[in-house]
Inverse folding.
């Protein structure tokens, strides 16, 4: 990678990390069990000059798969013609399409809000793609006020995701969206 590219990436990161620390998201701690600030930094470096949405979502799933502990599925569902369609992912094969309002993904997409499910068996309408999944977090990816995708992460552990994971993953998504 050229020197100028390195500089612009580190400049962007500095602005991003500094503003993050001063903003409402100041509870994203570099010292948390999963270092989401570092993941966001690695992701921006990994993306580099690439602007292809699928390529960048694919690398995001691979990085989260590598860095998060105790997860069995990480992937994106993309909003296409008012439905969610399976996008880049890591894990077992999954259902290809989810209607808005259905399952955890469709509900998060409809509400435009992050949903944390401590026990998927207690979530009405949960769509089971892998029997070992016990908890789940789904986050909307919004660009210029429009939903473009949701990020779905499953874990074989009950209650795997907390508020800090939510804040951290929302930070990672914010870091990625300029490149989508
Ligand atoms: N559990 C999700 C479906 C997708 S899979 O977990 C990969 C849901 O209820 O929307």
């Amino acid at each position: 990678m050229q020197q100028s590219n390195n500089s612009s990436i580190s400049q962007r990161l500095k602005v991003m990390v500094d503003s993050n620390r001063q903003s409402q998201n100041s509870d994203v701690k570099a010292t948390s069990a999963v270092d989401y600030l570092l993941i966001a930094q690695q992701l921006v470096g990994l993306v580099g000059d690439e602007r292809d949405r699928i390529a960048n979502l694919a690398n995001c799933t691979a990085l989260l798969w590598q860095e998060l502990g105790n997860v069995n599925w990480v992937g994106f569902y993309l909003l296409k013609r008012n439905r969610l369609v399976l996008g880049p992912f890591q894990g077992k094969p999954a259902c290809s399409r989810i209607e808005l309002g259905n399952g955890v993904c469709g509900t998060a997409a409809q509400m435009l809000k992050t949903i944390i499910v401590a026990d998927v068996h207690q979530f009405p309408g949960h769509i089971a793609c892998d029997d070992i999944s016990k908890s789940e977090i789904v986050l909307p990816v919004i660009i210029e006020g429009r939903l473009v995708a949701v990020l779905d992460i499953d874990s074989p552990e009950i209650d795997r995701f907390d508020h800090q994971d939510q804040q951290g993953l929302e930070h990672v998504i914010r870091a990625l969206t300029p490149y989508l």
Summary: The chain has one domain: 3-179. Helices lie at 3-22, 36-47, 53-67, 103-111, 163-176.
